[in-house]
Structures are given as structure tokens and as C-alpha cells.
Amino acid sequence: MEKQNSYSHILKYTSLFGGVQVLSILVGLVRNKLVALILGPMGMGLLALFSSTIKLVGDSTNLGLSISAVRNMSGAYDCGDHEHLLRSISVFRHWSLLTSLFGMLVCIVLSPLLSSWTFSFGDHTLHFVLLAPVVALTTFSTGELAILKATRRLRDIAENSVYAMLVTLFVSVPIYYFFGYKGIVPSLLLVILLQTVIVMRYSLRAYPFRLNFSRALLGEGCGFLKLGVAFVIAGMAGSGVEMAIRAYISNVDGVDTVGLYNAAYVMIFTYVGTVFTAMETDYYPRLSSISKLGREFNLTVNKQIEVSLHLVSPMLVFFILAMPVLLPLLYSGKFLPVLPMMQVAALAMYARAIFLPIEYIALSRGDSKRFLCIELVSDVLLLTMAILGYSRCGLLGMGVGMTIASVLEVFVAVGFCRVAYGYKLSMAQLKIIFVHATIGVLTSLLSFVDNVWVYVSVGALLFALDLAYTLSIMRRHVDIDIVNRIKRKFVRRS
Prior knowledge:
This is Polysaccharide biosynthesis protein. The protein is mostly helical. About 85% of the residues lie in helices and about 0% in strands. The protein has one domain (about 1-490). The protein is built from 19 helices and no strands. Helix 11 crosses helix 17.
């Protein structure tokens, strides 16, 4: 476990998925630029509304199996019990198939309501009926990906991610080009179908699919449901908040503003947030495999927070400084009104780097009630602060509100996990948080300075300081990891 908690291990897998995510970002940037030029803010808004609504239906019907099952299957995998692992995978797949079909049925039945709730104009019932298979395929493909995560097939996951993003680019953009708004629904359908085929290529090669429905087999899956149901409620709340924010903006200011908001959301929470991908893929199974709370458990969480901050902070500083150039370059000049929001809301990612590793504590313990409590409080904070900020200062106010909500989430999660699990942030982590957050806040404040020379010179200095601080700490820890590894080899030989 020491090896798994080392900086070298965390950096290795964060770098693996970080490299994939960098490629994903580049492909996503090209795709979003083309889609923005083809569809414009209104088309981006329609795409965001369809996507967020479908995500809400999927999160509400998948029973959270992809998260709860990872904990169960990874336990069997770590114990080396191949027979139990195969049985767990079989049980999980049967439940995954059932929840996929259930999600599709729910989407069809509720399509008239989804249309009236999501849009303030027109009847989009047929669109949601046609999008019902997207719910089923998303749930099923996520389940197959969960099997790869639980069994540590990290390279397969990385390859799958690359192929999935290329499919998204080369399928969706031509459809939008030739069909415009009418191509949104067919594009979503075709993309998820091809992505499902790709992930199944890896999962079936490792663990062939064998259908054998029986009451006993399905009964075994009830063990997944306790944590899964809590995850569903949390997912519903999270997706509901995203949908509610977009619906609120749509009803107050129109779909065009939704497109602006979605551009900001994608660039901040999707692109920058990709650095956290390794958490669910590598960190969560590692944390789940630690049987007892205590020093080792705390160390695992704190090291993940530390590495996440070191990786995300220089990226955020550069991101905030370069945004006046990146936004029109990656989208178009029509999206410039959302620039102030982005340069403030980016600070929320510092809080996310702390919050997410702590949030996984409850998941790794299978503690459904405490996990749900943390999630619901976070969702209420986000919805309240975002809408309050928007009502006061428009998109800029929403950015401020989202950042404040994220900071409050950290205090809630730390306090909750301190009482429930004895978790504590060390002084070393607090110092790192203070340094990175201070540089981030100064960079965000600098974005409101009109003098170009001051902006560029001070911005370059802040970026250099943050990067130097990150490299000095990470180099020291990685060197220690290498020394310890050499010592272990000599001990084995002797």
C-alpha cells in the first residue's frame, strides 16, 4: 500500500490519464470551436439543454451501480479471488442491463413533462422519445467502464477514452454542418452508440458477457443497491441543479444566455476538471481497498489532495490569464460576455481539488447516508449561490456565487468527515492550499486590470511563482519515492 500511496504512483496514473485528458481537451476544443461556429450560442444552448436533461434521467434511473459495484468488484480483485470476481461481474452486468432498459422506458414515458420543464418554447416531446436510447446506452457503457476500473485495466480505459473522443469529433461535427439544429438529436444517438461499441470491445475481451437471468443472481445484486440508491439520489440532485440553473437562465434571459453559460461551464468544470479523472479511475479503488481508518487512510486522502492541487493550480493560473485570448479563439467573439464569469468561477476548481478526495471517503466506506448528506448540502449551496449571484450581477455574479459555494462545500466536507471518520487535513496540506489559493485569487483579481503591460508582467510573475512552488515540492517527494524504491530492492536481495 505504501507504493500505491507514493507520489510516483499517483503521478504515474494521473499523468497517464492527464495525457489522455490533454488530448481530450484539444479534441474537445476543436469540436467546440466548430460547433460554436456552426450552431452559434442558441445551438449550443439547445445542445446543453438536451444533454443536461438526458443526464438527469440517466442519473435518476441507473441506481448508482457503476459506483457501488466498483467498490465490490475491486475488493474481490485485490483479494485475488477470481471466481468471486467473475460472479460479481456477472451479477453487476445483469443489473446494468435492467437499469439501462428502465432508464429508456422512463425517458419515453416522461418525455412530455421533460419537454415542458426544460423548454419555454415549442413541443420537444418527440425529441426526448428519440433520445431515450441515449439514456440506456450511456448507463450500459458506464457499467462496462466500471468493470475496467474495478479490475485496474487502466491502459484499456485510456485507449477507450481516446477512441471515444475521436468518434465524438468526427461524427458530430459533420452532422451539425449538414443538418444544423436538426442534427443535434441524431448526433447524440450515433455518438453514444459508437462509444458503447468501443468500450464493449475492451470489457468483453477481458470478461466475456454471459446472460443467465435468475432470481438468485438478481438477488445477489441487492448488495449494490444500498450505496447505489444514495448515489442515484445524489446524481439526481446534482443533475437537477445543473438543469435548474440552465432552465432558470433560459426562462429569465433566453437560450442564447444558456449557450454562454454552457461555454463557461465546459471550459472550467469539464476541461480543467479533467485533471481529476484519475480520482475515480485509480484513487477511489485504492481508497476502498484500505480496510481501516487511521494514519494510512488519512495519508492516502491528503496525498491525493496535495498532488491534485499541484497539478491544477498552474493550469488554473494560466487558464485565467489566457482566457481573453482563448475564449474567442476556441468559440467566437460572440461568447466574450461570459469572460468575467469564467475568470472568477475558475477559482472554484481549487476548492474542487480539495473537496473531491474528501468526498470519496464516504463512498469508499460504503456509507450511503453520510455521502448523500454531503452531496445534498453541496447541491443546495451551489443552486442557492448561483441563482442569487445571477439575480444580483448576471453571469459575473453567478461566477462569484459558484466559487463561494465551492469554498463552503470544502468546510462542510472537512467538518463532516472529521467527526464521522476522524479525517484531518495536515499542516503541510493547509500550507499548500494557502499558497496556491492566494496566487489563484491574485490572478483572478488581476483579470480586472485594464493596463495590458501590468496584466502581462504581473500575470507572468504569478504563473512563474506558482509553477516553481509546485515543481520544488513535487521534485522533492518524487526523489524520496525513488530512493525508497531502491532501498526496498536492496533489502530484498540481501
